[in-house]
Amino acid sequence: MIEDAAQSFGATYKGRKSCNLSTIGCTSFFPSKLLGCYGDGGAIFTNDDRIAKACKEIRVYGQSQRYVHTRIGVGGRMDTLQCAIVLAKLERLDWEVKQRQRVAERYNQSLAAGNIGLLSLRPDRTCVYAQYTVLTHDRAALQKHLNEAGIPTAVHYPMPLNEQPAYKHLCCPDCTPVAQQIAKQVISLPMGSDLSEAHQQHIVKHLL
Ligand SMILES: Cc1ncc(COP(=O)(O)O)c(C=O)c1O
């Protein structure tokens, strides 16, 4: 089981942290992520020594010892500068998560009365709000309205995986009706630990 934790890093499920829920947990340090570096980076988590050894070898062209290649690998080293940035930011990850949860809570409370569909969170898990995504029936109109007010939005994501050209031939058509429907309605609002209350009120005003 491989867990894609690129957006859930820092979240918990039944008291266990994301990346500790599966055989292999993967996360991304892409700049837009919760724990982002300034270029490309990522990490793999596992409790299985055999997999850890294989991952370390694959990262350096399949080398098991200097100049001995025992498997096919890639050049996947994360550069030192990105590591230094991630290590420094890791120290304030808990703060980052708490801030985002605070911002999300403010959105939840302010938008509860409007027509925007809010995502609910089950009590046995926490969310780190890599995105703050809501549902709307007329996404194009809402995006235009917010854009004209200088409020950026994004769509995460417009096409379900089984509709992607690369995978379409492997999947049955219309077998994910919910994902197809949701992909037409999702819109992500500005979210970040530095989003001020005043700026958030300005955003909410244009949503109600
Ligand atoms: C859910 C998810 N998985 C995987 C990725 C890919 O991350 P990376 O570009 O660091 O490989 C992303 C980043 O956009 C993501 O959001």
Notes on the structure:
By secondary structure, this protein is an alpha+beta fold. The protein has two domains: 2-90, Type I PLP-dependent aspartate aminotransferase-like (Major domain) (Aspartate Aminotransferase, domain 2, 3-Layer(aba) Sandwich); 93-205, Aspartate Aminotransferase, domain 1. 33% of the residues lie in helices and 14% in strands. It has helices at residues 49-59, 80-90, 93-111, 139-148, 177-185, 197-205, and strands spanning 2-4, 12-13, 16-17, 24-28, 42-45, 63-65, 68-69, 132-135, 186-189. Helix 3 (93-111) packs parallel to helix 6 (197-205). It is globular and about 60 Å long. Pyridoxal-5'-phosphate binds next to loops.
List keywords for this structure.
three-stranded mixed β-sheet, 208 residues, Aspartate Aminotransferase, domain 2, alpha+beta, binds pyridoxal-5'-phosphate, globular, two-stranded antiparallel sheet, Aspartate Aminotransferase, domain 1, 6 helices, 9 strands
